[in-house]
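Input.
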Amino acid sequence: MLVENKTTEFKREYVDDIKKTIIAFANCDGGTLMIGVDDDGTVCGISDIDGTMQRVTNTIRDAVRPDITMFTECRDSVLDGRPVLCVTVQRGTARPYYLQGKGIRPEGVYVRQGASTVPATEAAILSMIKETSGDSYEAARSLNQQLTFCQTSALFQKRNIDFGNAQMRTLRLIGEDGTFTNLAFLLSDQCTHTVKLALFDGSRKTVFRDRMELSGSLLSQLEDAFAYIDRHNRTRSEFSGLDRIDMRDYPPEAIREALLNALVHRDYSFSSPTLISIFDDRIEFVTIGGLIRGISMEDIRLGISVLRNQNLAGVFYRLRLIEAYGTGILKINENYDGFPIKPVMEATANAFKIVLPNTNYQKTAYEKSVYSQEKHQSFGEETHYTAPARDPVKEERINTVIELCRKNGYIMRTDIQRALNISQATAILLLRELTASGLLITQGAARNLRYYLNEP
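Output.
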């Protein structure tokens, strides 16, 4: 007598639920569905073998995703002198298979448990995804297949780049099986990975001044996060003669590269958000996902880049958001050339942090200190002066200025920029400080301003 087991299922006649059994066979070890056999193994046969076969093949084609037709075979057979339809299903290579209308969720994915067909657990679904997609998060099939791309489409359109079905396949948003990948999920309006931004009062995480949490497409999060930081990136203005020099607290290019690094290199297999904390003296970018195995911090500082999310980086490259792989950290450091304070980068087993120092913070703090001393003196209070710490970089720059003045007779701002390889703003601040201290004296104005050593 015929018996149902893990790889054998009986149906007296065609019913719509046979699609669940077919999915379960494909997700497990394969099996055979016999239509025309009672649950107890008694052969009853079917009257319309051709019509039943047509209904079964239509169901397999229309209701099961990904396409499973190449792993199934329908054939008519005769058991105990009665016609029976046998549907043989092989174990599929694109598991998990699921009901089109339900998606990759327990109510849409089925497996065999003994002689029964049951919904798969979430753990079983994730295990199948990892087994068929490898360890790459972005290449695996998205659990959510009901995705929309309004935000991403708008950005592609803004940059005059097509974003249709063909482009989504080329960019790996759609996999070879025709389903959305996790990369598509990251760029969809439904993306649940977030960026949390917080503005703190002072230099500690004690008092919040403002906070924001961003969700949706990573491309939209990128734009919104940059706009938020830019609103709090204050501008300090100084004057050199009639010229006004504007200096941002943080180089915008450094912010951009740190933000791109946080989004492109994050490990999205974890659900924790990207954290961006803005203090008076610094901005911290903390990303889930440590260094790729085999890569050290020294490699990172040299510009070595091993991408965790290659396809995501490809999308950013296509949109001209990144120019070349491995240049972000170098650009961040270059933006701080000429400043005594430098970016700091730290890594643990599961996190990476970039700290951008506020280039105006020390000057602002010094001015507040001078103002405070003057205020105390105006009320007859005693003040105490503390000598500043020795700065070897600054001393070297001063010695270079002195040597140039003695060699050429005088110097101009552009001479200092070239000799010290520093920015215009840094050169102006250095020359103003040396002039205020009496080391240099000036002649001329504006672009013809010359600096001479104040020697007897």
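Residues 8-133 form a domain with the Methyltransferase, Cobalt-precorrin-4 Transmethylase; Domain 2 fold (CATH 3.30.950.30).
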